[in-house]
Specification:
This protein has about 450 residues and is an alpha/beta fold. It contains 22 helices and seven strands. The protein has a seven-stranded mixed sheet with strand order 2-3-1-4-5-6-7, with helices on both faces.
Length: about 450
């Protein structure tokens, strides 16, 4: 289930009916806003946020400038888009960086919110920006949490402090900060123990640790799947610690989206990052205006481009494009592209980022079966380098061997070879400027 899918589908239906009305009256507008209000409440958006949102949209939409314009429906949708961006935070708020390194970042939240994995994801994201992060485990009451951070950080090749047995969080941080300085780190990320926001004793402990760390950023890691509970948790932590930002985890699994649409407005704390998958590279900067576009079915091409740039550098992309246009693209290249495509996320999610027309969007199933990609990869993996380079040499006996090696039917191998030959022929025609597509380049 794609993020915000339920809400997006309902809003898409509402706005389609609005467009079909042509000229709008205030009665039409009231009817539409009632439907929008209900859709937002069903998406578990905080009722005060919904009330303020509807009031803002109505206030901006009731004037003659909108209702008597040539495209009143489009004007109303534009206002809804802008106001949705506003409740999500307006514009991107980046991390604060210390004028004199290192920048100190403290992660807080409930146990089970994904804090430890998020700490490594954040470090990996910063490393990708040419920064030098250093991780510090401060959940000393749970040795398993410390071990999890050590192992995950090692897998991501991020330096991490290994505390001695019996250390308290304050001692671990103080020793780690010295080690971080020696290693040349410019950012220290402290993974604190998960704690209940209603436990005053535990909240007192985190305030004491915060006073020692004196963080430039105090980020709450919140599970978006918990909806309004996540908002209550954010309010409590903000009151205790004066949060500077929020990282929403599991946003890819939140089909309703209530937490994301309520968090910033209720707490006044900006959402700075969103976890959009289980792998360590799936932490993305949160862009309110992009998220508003995605919710309203307008796509999110910029985020799609960002992901593509993370998986393939520009020179490599140009090299692959040239091979395609010259007809030199082989099955080995095709397999590499499939691997990169799969690392960008699910096909369903990527298609949801494209601004597709309504009919085309409805033709796409909510969850695309990606087993076909797995099958294609297995077939290509079962080929020899020579077969990948020149599929024409794959005769009947070779097809049987590839089929047995990949655990697929011979018909699957035949279908892949036929499709690849057709695609290669088409790309070659485009490269030579032949046919209707070629003339466009």
């Amino acid at each position: 289930m794609a993020m915000f899918q339920n809400l997006s589908e309902k809003l898409d239906g509402i706005f389609k009916r609005l467009k079909n009305r042509g000229r709008l009256t205030e009665k039409d507008l009231d009817s539409t806003l009632r439907e929008v209000r209900l859709a937002l409440l069903e998406a578990d958006v905080n009722f005060k946020v919904v009330k303020g949102f509807i009031s803002q949209v109505r206030g901006r939409s009731t004037g003659s400038e909108v209702l008597e314009s040539l495209t009143p429906a489009q004007q109303v949708i534009k206002i809804v888009h802008e106001e949705m961006g506003n409740i999500l935070g307006g514009s991107r708020v980046d991390l604060t960086r210390a004028s004199i390194p290192p920048t100190r970042i403290m992660l807080v939240g409930l146990q089970g919110s994904g804090k430890t994995t998020t700490a490594v994801k954040l470090a990996l994201h910063l490393k990708g920006q040419n920064m030098r992060p250093y991780l510090v485990p401060a959940d000393m009451s749970r040795p398993a949490a410390v071990e999890q951070l050590l192992q995950t950080a090692q897998r991501a090749e991020i330096p991490v402090y290994k505390p001695e047995a019996g250390m308290n969080p304050e001692g671990a941080y103080q020793n780690a900060s010295v080690e971080a300085g020696r290693s040349g780190a410019d950012t220290v990320i402290v993974d604190t123990a998960g704690r209940l926001h209603v436990d005053e004793e535990l909240m007192k402990e985190i305030r004491t640790l915060s006073a020692i760390i004196n963080p430039h950023e105090t980020l709450l890691v919140a599970d978006s799947m918990t909806g309004q509970d996540a908002v209550k948790v954010a309010e409590a932590f903000h009151e205790a610690l004066d949060l500077t930002g929020i990282i929403l985890t599991k946003l890819d699994g939140d089909a309703r989206g209530g937490a994301a649409l309520s968090m910033r407005n209720v707490t006044g704390v900006p959402i700075k990052f969103a976890g959009t998958g289980e792998t360590l590279d799936r932490l993305e900067p949160f862009h309110p205006e992009r998220m508003a576009s995605r919710i309203l079915g307008m796509g999110d091409v910029l985020t799609l481009i960002d992901r593509a740039q993370k998986t393939m550098d520009e020179k490599e992309a140009e090299k692959v494009a040239r091979k395609q246009m010259r007809g030199e693209f082989d099955l080995g290249d095709f397999r590499d592209q499939l691997t990169k495509l799969r690392s960008m996320g699910s096909l369903s999610e990527m298609l949801s980022m494209l601004p597709l027309p309504g009919k085309m969007k409805k033709a796409i199933p909510g969850e695309i079966d990606e087993s076909e990609l797995v099958r294609i990869t297995a077939i290509i993996d079962s080929m020899t380098p020579a077969e990948r380079k020149n599929p024409k040499i794959i005769n009947g006996s070779r097809r049987k061997r590839i089929s047995a090696g990949s655990g697929t039917a011979v018909s699957d191998v035949n279908r892949l070879l036929k499709r690849f030959a057709e695609t290669k022929k088409m790309m070659k025609m485009i490269g030579k400027g032949k046919g209707p597509l070629g003339k466009m380049f």
